[in-house]
């Protein structure tokens, strides 16, 4: 009887932990539920197509226009632009850390990368606004320093740590046997990196890149403070844009409760959520495939 | 007691200035002031989550209906006037613009300063967030319900607009009277210079009253606060200090 | 000695940080002979082997002292190019470690990194190497499949082919058959006997029978010291040192 | 001398394969040049990161330190926030961060215990992991929307410390789970086996042996979670932060000022943007010191731990 | 057989997922005897040992078939409580693994998890166990220091004391001295000889001299099969099977 008791107790404890472990799923479920609940009513007013592809965002006019295409384009452009900066820098830094840096150097640089990751985004946004923007405006003689380029620069800075540290893990975990095999055949270190290490760690590196971009597309404060906020398609690098998170953050407080504007902002949140959700699923799929086939995949 | 004030970012500086002075006189009052916009304030009044709602526009019919359904009766108090002044870079020689010209510029139809008698320079349009009360007034009184071109630079506050125009010789913007400074140049509208007098006598075409709403007739700290705001020697002095046009 | 020595070490000391792994090793390797290094685990066999192609350079704390020559050139002198050295001294590792590439690309790898572009030459070289490694017939129909699909023994022969493709002079093998089953092991041993006509081969093994079967000369290491080196026949039948005879009769290790 | 050697060898090999003039590869010098160019590029990339961090810190420090004094840290702002300090912001930020940890830490650690100690590989585990990964990827502003719709409106908490802390807790959950799992994984299995071998139940093993051994790592995760929560703004913008509330929060239902929000409103929507610049820099510097300080502490602590274990 | 068998396995098969690690093992262990399990690496010694206290339950893919009894009770029957079983069958591992707690707490651990609260009893039990493990004199002045400060040999004796404190009947030891130096090893061996008056001991060792020194019975495993089990003296001098004699003369492994 006493045995049974202890066994039952263990079962209860296990189930309790299981229950708690579901917290993440539940939270995710609630997020999805409430996002959709508050966002979907806008589609009584505009069709999904008009919402997503509409060119005009005049939520407070009479009659209003709820087209978030410029916002989506703003988000995508800013993300791509920042990726063109952050991917090379992040992956190259990762290569440096994993393959070239002396252990001592690695010990110093890795924490620095982690520190960058922990800088509050509002500080980076603030920096972009008060230091970088006037600088850009002066150097390039443009109407405003708060623009796509500035935002991309700041976003790149924010996503580099993600890209760098995840790729570094992937690169570092390439088995030494492959490194030795290549060097033993008379390859230089660089040739080894390019022909063996990178191909072998490509899935880890791509996961890193996707997660980095996911971070950039969802980042709020930086684009809110730095992107300039014009809800129009940009024609040049230095045009202001209004990415989705910026629009939500700037307008939510002003939108009358459960009004059309409010619902439209939630619907924008849904679109943003779907974007990042796809990024994460892809990253997860790559990471999963990578795990199954072991450390030596092509 | 606790006193929560929410709403219009335009009224926010008034609420804050007056609130600080009010707290000095009534140290036991725990004051919380937030912006959030006129709509947000009125929503909070309807929900009963705030004591006072600031608004830079009058309550809408829809909102009144909603309030009555929930059994609350918002009471408006006019606390100040605001006038919105077009501004340009000090180096710009343009002195006056008609409302039609302003509308043309903001619609994106007038693209060069020389079309309105200025230098041969491209016009860079600076505007406010579409969801600000200030923008709503601009849209209503200048644009006649037509829209500001989406390519306009968007700034989040009056101060930011002033800054943007001060640093850019192509730019035009609009700000509340309280934000005027020497780094920007005010332009008269339809020949009328924006000032306290032209606002009060109604000559300046782009002006509006500012409100505070309460839920039902105010009592306790709330009524004390509103009396303080409306007091010609106390609140209204601070309104003027904040750069707005006092009621009297 | 009058014969030309391909590889020769004189007073070689080796350190991992503060701890010494090799003590004053003097050992010469004849051209076109197979030399086996034997000894208990941790005695420094691998360390010594990896000195010969300077693979130990990769270990930050490693330090080498003394004289190690190939064709009478000190390979630790500053003028020597490590990359070049390693393409002259091929290496095969304990666990087969093919690249996650096709079979063809594995063998072509050494040529490609050298910058060779000539496709016909590469193809012929790949085929020749695979033939030398006694693997060509088994894989000729799937040269462009992933090398990871090969069996362990095939993978190890692929690694040998890969090493041969860059035409090394010396071939180092660190327990090349220890991860393989008996049949695969036999194939590798046969291969070694074939290859010695062309290469100078140095092989580390913990299997004394294997040493006896494949090598001409055997060197016995113990605790970082070279105890004894002699013709394999002699060493196994008439060891001069007590430690050697203890080891080969299985008294310790 | 060595080159001579190589040439003679080439000749020999050619005769071996009966092939004349094997194609010459890229010259050694060129290969080495490429390598040094690329390696310097990689080094430069790493340097750029460090330099960017240094530039940001330098600007904040150079322009912010003057604003910081005892009064700045211990009083409330006044005169339309052009004067005074940021005490309510610091307190609000810490309350939000700690509140989030009070909720997220136990849940996160318990989830990690389930994942690392109890769960067997399979569909359920994969789904939970997918959930965690996706939660980690949800944009912070979406957390804000969720907090607004769920805590503030649906659960009728109003804009309050509580709603903000819960929103932040949801956001930090994946961070804490990740760190805790890492810490649990680093506890050697031999401890578990020894304990079970002595007749301890699984829970006893976890509670008495595994958790104490993993605790430092788990706490490091907690600190990281706290610092992340303290620096975030988007999730609390609609759920907890207000423009001006000079008195310190008195209950979980108080609205609070927070450092990030303070920086944001002063810099973008304030009435006196230029006049309050020094205060903005000062606040930013305080926030940086707060957040980086916590991170640095965690990093150093973890490094020490690693040294001790190895 | 007429004597009572403490532990007995009949037709025991064991699988890790699809691969079988034990084949039809039939082996009995007498009370108060030391039985040594020997055999080359990977032959299944540890696997068999860990079947006896069901430590293999922790491996998700592990599966057991057949009959394993202690005191004639099938320990794999559903009624048996694993936790209780493990406190009756103590285990000592290859590498000393004290908890990062004080010496006292290490030994007291088994009692505490059983729910014993009586402080005096715990203290006396700790002392007794440390004495039985021949460690008490060395540590009596620092019972409340961390166990991690002990030497390897002391740590291993501490682990034995920790196992003894819960008063098990059977003691399983998986290469308990393989991580220790000769002096510490000797101490452990002496300890085993002392302990066998009270416990039934099963020890895995790869050191045949050790098996010869400490055990009464030796069982030889090869590739998952029990080849031969006999009195130690007999097995080492007159093995019945060729494989056994090959192994003990060092012909392979
Ligand atoms: N990277 C390293 N850092 C520090 N010490 C090392 C390193 N590699 C080997 N050693 C030490 O150097 C000594 C010799 O090691 P080595 O690998 O050469 O032995 P071995 O004869 O090849 O043994 P085995 O038969 O087990 O492969 C050992 O004591 C080993 O612990
Ligand atoms: N957790 C596991 N999962 C899968 N296979 C395992 C596992 N543990 C052991 N094996 C396999 O089972 C077989 C027997 O292993 P076991 O550990 O019992 O051998 P052993 O005799 O103790 O060897 P050693 O002397 O090296 O400790 C080996 O082939 C091993 O690879
Ligand atoms: Mg070795
Ligand atoms: Mg074992
Ligand atoms: O905040 P508003 O006054 O612009 O609504």
Walkthrough of the structure:
The complex is a heteropentamer, with 1 copy of chain A (298 residues), 1 copy of chain B (248 residues), 2 copies of chain C (253 residues) and 1 copy of chain D (310 residues). In chain A, 74% of the residues lie in helices and 1% in strands. Chain A is an all-alpha fold and 298 residues long. Chain A folds into 2 domains: 39 residues; 250 residues, MetI-like fold. A two-stranded antiparallel sheet of chain A has the order 1-2. In chain A, a hairpin with a 6-residue loop joins β1 and β2. In chain B, 33% of the residues lie in helices and 25% in strands. In chain B, the strands form 2 sheets. In chain B, strands 1, 2, 3, 4, 6, 7, 8, 9 and 11 form a 9-stranded mixed sheet that branches. Chain B has a two-stranded parallel sheet with strand order 5-10. The longest helix of chain B is centred in the N-terminal third of the chain and has 14 residues. With 253 residues, chain C is an alpha/beta fold. Chain C has a domain of 175 residues: P-loop containing nucleotide triphosphate hydrolases (Rossmann fold, 3-Layer(aba) Sandwich). Chain C has 10 helices and 10 strands. In chain C, the strands form 2 sheets. Chain C has a 6-stranded mixed sheet with strand order 6-7-8-3-9-10, sandwiched between helices. In chain C, strands 2-1-4-5 form a 4-stranded antiparallel sheet, with helices on one face. With 310 residues, chain D is mostly helical. Chain D has 2 domains: 46 residues; 242 residues, Orthogonal Bundle (MetI-like fold), CATH 1.10.3720.10. Chain D contains 12 helices and 2 strands, in the order αααββααααααααα. The two termini of chain D are 46 Å apart. The N terminus of chain D is likely disordered. At the A-D interface, α1, α2, α4, α5 and α6 of A face α2, α4, α5, α6 and α7 of D. Chain A: It comes from Desulfatibacillum aliphaticivorans. Chain A: This is Phosphate transport system permease protein. Chain A: One of its GO terms (molecular function) is phosphate transmembrane transporter activity.
């Amino acid at each position: 009887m006493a045995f049974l008791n202890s066994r039952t107790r263990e079962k209860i404890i296990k189930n309790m932990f299981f229950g708690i472990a579901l917290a993440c799923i539940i939270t995710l479920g609630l997020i999805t539920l409430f996002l959709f609940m508050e966002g979907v009513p806008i589609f009584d007013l505009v069709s999904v197509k008009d919402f997503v592809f509409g060119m005009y965002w005049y939520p407070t006019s009479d009659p209003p226009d709820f087209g978030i295409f410029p916002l989506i384009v703003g988000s995508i452009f800013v993300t791509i632009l920042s990726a063109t900066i952050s991917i090379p820098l992040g992956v190259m830094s990762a290569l440096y850390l994993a393959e070239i840096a002396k252990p001592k150097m690695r010990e110093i640089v890795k924490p620095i990368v982690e520190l960058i990751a922990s800088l509050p985004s509002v500080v980076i946004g603030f920096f972009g606004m008060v230091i970088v923007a006037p600088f850009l405006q002066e150097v390039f003689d443009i109407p405003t320093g708060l623009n796509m380029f500035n935002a991309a620069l700041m976003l790149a800075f924010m996503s580099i740590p993600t890209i760098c540290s995840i790729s570094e893990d992937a690169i570092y975990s390439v088995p030494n046997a492959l490194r030795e095999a290549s060097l033993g055949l008379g390859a230089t270190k660089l040739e080894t990196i390019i022909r063996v290490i990178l191909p072998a760690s490509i899935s880890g590196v791509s996961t890193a890149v996707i997660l980095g971009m996911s971070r950039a597309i969802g980042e709020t404060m930086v684009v809110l403070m730095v992107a300039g906020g014009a809800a129009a398609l940009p024609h040049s690098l230095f045009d202001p844009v209004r990415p989705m998170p910026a629009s939500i953050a700037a307008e939510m407080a002003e939108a009358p409760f459960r009004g059309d504007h409010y619902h439209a902002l939630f619907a924008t949140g849904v679109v943003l959520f779907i974007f990042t959700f796809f990024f994460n699923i892809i990253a997860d799929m790559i990471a999963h495939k990578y795990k199954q086939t072991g450390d030596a995949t092509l | 007691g606790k006193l929560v004030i929410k709403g219009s970012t335009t009224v926010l500086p008034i609420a804050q200035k007056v609130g600080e002075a009010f707290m000095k006189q009534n140290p036991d009052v725990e004051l919380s002031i937030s912006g959030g916009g006129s709509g947000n304030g009125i929503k909070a009044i309807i929900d009963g989550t705030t004591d006072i709602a600031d608004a830079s526009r009058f309550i809408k019919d829809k909102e009144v209906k909603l309030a009555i359904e929930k059994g609350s009766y918002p009471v408006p108090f006019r606390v100040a006037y605001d006038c919105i002044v077009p501004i340009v870079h000090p180096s710009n020689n343009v002195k006056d613009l008609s409302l039609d010209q302003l509308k043309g510029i903001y619609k994106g139809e007038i693209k060069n300063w020389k079309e309105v008698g200025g230098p041969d320079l491209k016009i860079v349009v600076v505007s406010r967030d579409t969801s600000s009360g200030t923008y709503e007034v601009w849209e209503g009184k200048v644009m006649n319900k037509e829209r500001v071109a989406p390519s306009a630079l968007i700034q989040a506050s009056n101060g930011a607009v002033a800054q943007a125009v001060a640093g850019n010789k192509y730019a035009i913007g609009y700000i509340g009277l309280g934000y005027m400074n020497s780094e920007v140049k005010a332009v008269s509208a339809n020949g009328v210079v924006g000032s306290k007098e032209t606002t009060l006598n109604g000559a300046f075409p782009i002006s509006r009253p500012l409100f505070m709403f309460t839920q039902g007739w105010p009592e306790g700290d709330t009524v004390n606060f509103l009396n303080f705001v409306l007091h010609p020697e106390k609140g209204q002095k601070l309104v003027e200090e904040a750069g707005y046009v006092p009621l009297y | 000695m009058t014969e030309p020595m391909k590889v020769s070490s004189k007073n070689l000391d080796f350190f991992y940080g503060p701890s010494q792994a090799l003590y004053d090793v003097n050992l010469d390797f004849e051209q076109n002979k197979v030399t086996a290094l034997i000894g208990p685990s941790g005695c420094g066999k691998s360390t010594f082997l990896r000195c010969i192609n300077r693979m130990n350079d990769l270990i930050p704390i490693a330090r080498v002292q003394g004289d190690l020559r190939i064709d009478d050139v000190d390979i630790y002198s500053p003028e020597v190019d490590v990359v070049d050295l390693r393409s002259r001294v091929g290496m095969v590792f304990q666990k087969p470690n093919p690249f996650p590439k096709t079979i063809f690309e594995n063998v072509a790898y050494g040529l490609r990194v050298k910058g060779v572009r000539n496709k016909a030459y590469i193809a012929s070289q790949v085929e020749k190497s695979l033939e030398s490694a006694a693997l060509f017939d088994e894989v000729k129909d799937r040269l462009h499949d992933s090398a990871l699909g090969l069996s362990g023994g095939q993978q190890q022969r692929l690694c040998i082919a890969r090493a041969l493709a860059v035409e090394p002079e010396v071939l180092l093998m660190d327990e090349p058959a220890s991860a393989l089953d008996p049949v695969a092991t036999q194939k590798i041993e046969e291969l070694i006997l074939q290859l010695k006509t062309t290469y100078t081969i140095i092989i580390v093994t913990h299997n004394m029978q294997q040493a006896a079967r494949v090598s001409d000369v055997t060197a016995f290491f113990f605790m970082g010291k070279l105890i004894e080196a002699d013709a394999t026949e002699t060493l196994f039948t008439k060891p001069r040192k007590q430690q050697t005879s203890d080891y080969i009769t299985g008294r310790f290790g | 001398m060595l080159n001579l050697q190589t040439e003679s060898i080439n000749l020999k090999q050619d005769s071996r394969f009966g092939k004349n003039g094997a194609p010459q590869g890229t010259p050694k010098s060129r290969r080495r040049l490429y390598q040094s160019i690329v390696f310097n590029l990689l080094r430069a990339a790493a340097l750029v990161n460090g330099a960017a961090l240094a530039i940001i810190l330098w600007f904040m420090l150079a322009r912010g330190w003057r604003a910081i004094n005892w009064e700045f840290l211990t009083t409330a702002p006044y005169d339309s926030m052009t004067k005074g300090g940021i005490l309510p912001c610091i307190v609000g930020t810490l309350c939000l961060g700690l509140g989030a940890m009070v909720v997220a830490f136990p849940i996160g650690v318990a989830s990690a215990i389930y994942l690392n100690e109890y769960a067997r590989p399979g569909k359920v585990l994969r789904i939970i992991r997918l959930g965690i990964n996706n939660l980690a990827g949800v944009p912070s502003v979406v957390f804000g929307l969720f907090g607004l719709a769920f805590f503030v409106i649906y659960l009728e908490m109003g804009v309050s410390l509580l709603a903000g802390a819960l929103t932040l807790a949801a956001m930090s959950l994946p961070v804490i789970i990740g760190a805790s799992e890492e810490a649990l994984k680093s506890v050697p299995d031999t401890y578990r086996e020894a304990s079970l071998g002595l007749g301890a139940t699984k829970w006893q093993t976890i509670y008495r042996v595994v958790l104490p051994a993993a605790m430092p790592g788990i706490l490091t995760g907690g600190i990281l979670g706290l610092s992340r929560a303290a620096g975030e703004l988007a999730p609390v913008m609609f759920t907890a932060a207000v423009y001006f509330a000079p008195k310190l929060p008195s209950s979980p239902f108080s609205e609070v000022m927070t450092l990030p929000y303070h920086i944001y409103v002063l810099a973008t929507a304030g009435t006196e943007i230029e006049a309050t610049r020094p205060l903005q820099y000062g606040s930013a510097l305080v926030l940086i010191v707060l957040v980086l300080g916590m991170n640095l502490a965690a990093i150093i602590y973890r490094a020490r731990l690693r040294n001790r274990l190895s």
